[in-house]
Specification:
With 572 residues, this protein is of the alpha/beta class. The protein is built from 17 helices and 23 strands. The protein folds into two domains: 51 residues, no CATH class; 436 residues, Type I PLP-dependent aspartate aminotransferase-like (Major domain) (Aspartate Aminotransferase, domain 2, 3-Layer(aba) Sandwich), CATH 3.40.640.10. Strands 2, 4, 5, 6, 9, 10, 11 and 12 form an eight-stranded mixed β-sheet that branches. Strands 16, 17, 18, 20, 22 and 23 form a six-stranded antiparallel β-sheet that branches. A three-stranded mixed β-sheet has the order 8-7-21, with no helix packed on it. The longest helix is centred in the C-terminal third of the chain and has 29 residues.
Amino acid sequence: MHSPCSKHVEQVCSHGCCSNPLFEFTTTATATATTTSTSISTSSACRKLFISKTTAAFFPNTRFTDHESLPSFKESLSTFTQTYPKYSDTARVDRIRGQEYYHLSLSNRVCLDYIGIGLFSHLQLQTHHSPSSSSSDLHSDYPFFNTIYRSVNLKSQLLHGGEGSEFESSIRKRIMEFMNVSGDDYSMIITTNKSSAFKIVSETYPFQTSRKLLTVYDYKSEAVDAMVTTSEKRGAKVMSAEFKWPRMRIHSAKLRRLVERNRKKKKPRGLFVFPLQSRTTGASYSYQWMLKAQENGWHVLLDACALGPKDMDSFGLSLIRPDFLICSFYKVFGENPSGFGCLFVKKSIIPIMEDSCVGIATLVPAKNSSFHSDEEHSGTDLDLQIVAHGETNKSLQTKYRGLDHVDSLGLMQTSMRTRCLINWLINALTKLEYPNTETKTPLVQIYGPRIRFDRGPALAFNIYDWKGEKVEPSLVQKLSDRNNISLSQGSLHKIWFDDTYAEDKERVMTGGGVKKAKGVHEIAVVTAAVNFLANFEDVYRLWAFVARFLDADYVKKEKWRYTALNQKTIEV
């Protein structure tokens, strides 16, 4: 399935010849069939070139069986830059990281534990808290806010609620601009987090008349689970896509049947919840599933939380107009991942939503800001007329330097950078192997897509010891943290095994998988996410850390080292 596009997209392959992975052809009125065919052919060839160079250029035909045999950082960097010559075009990202996010170098911390987009930079935070900051600095760089929770009738709020205070209105305007969402078509609600946004939809969607909920997630999500629970209580029939082992591709035949089932009936179908990428495995999904769902009478919720920083620039909202769109933002990358969720509701669907009181968020200036009112906001004052030092917040000119940096870099640089880093990391991990030439036992099991031009920047994997037993993800995460590398854990589910993978199925089920009543298989995994601010040193350090598990005594040594340093025993 190809992705629709309303305009030609800049080419973003690391060799400078491939189209954006989100769009594989143009649909402009002047585009001819020959041009389209040539574009697809060129794009396909360039993608194949990218994959072949990735697999062949980095120490070809080499397997590393000892962590001490790994090539040095300097040698690996040299090979990396030769493999991806266009990576040097993203040098501006390194300058931004050094100037605006210097805390990453000072703390020596590798942040690979969350996906998302930061509103502000670390430098803004320091400028704001610095005693020497002038009033004008605060006016231009004030970065933080407090969140007030309040209960509203969502339908009334969308129809008559307005934009709130000018402080919040400025944030709404900047985010809608960043997401390329028009205020003429969509209304925006701020929520306490992503999970709250999903729950709000499930509380107000008309499941009495559109009774089905169909989700497409290859991993367990707290947000989606909350939506499922609420929807079931309201009478919805919940269905889920399944994913083929081991690359976690959508089981297309099954999902198509679910989308098209009973399509001859004229009544509304229900809500189709669709992420363009998996935030756990990095799998990318075709836009065509949303089009097919709409053609078959479904309302569509687009989960944009796992998209890259500028991917919405290439999303054809004029062609695919989801009824709901959810995204989230955090404050500062590597410093403060807290933030808020954003729910966009298409204005044409508001009349059919049900009256329901839900919890939404209101943003006000932080207490430590010179713009904060002397009044203590308890949440009862819903007008929120923020006044400080005789000035209304109309004078507040907030800079969102996190968003500004991404806007200035553009889709081409941000996507190319993460594409090169994640594919190099996957290739490097697959070269780690136990020194048993007969069985060639790999150290790492990767779930989802391997080396692919259009994969997302997330990675799900597990580490296996020399006996073939899985090292618990919680232990891997704990040891990585001791090495100043932040990783996460996740759980894959809705996995479908065909008969050719019977042995894999048995190994998964006996090696940490969980079987539930309805035959649902779950696999606990370690996850890593490559943000656009990540650099080669980050992925190299993760590779070097994982390689240490090639030493059969690594975990024992870590226990001993921790005991020696802390004079006490702790279970790792």
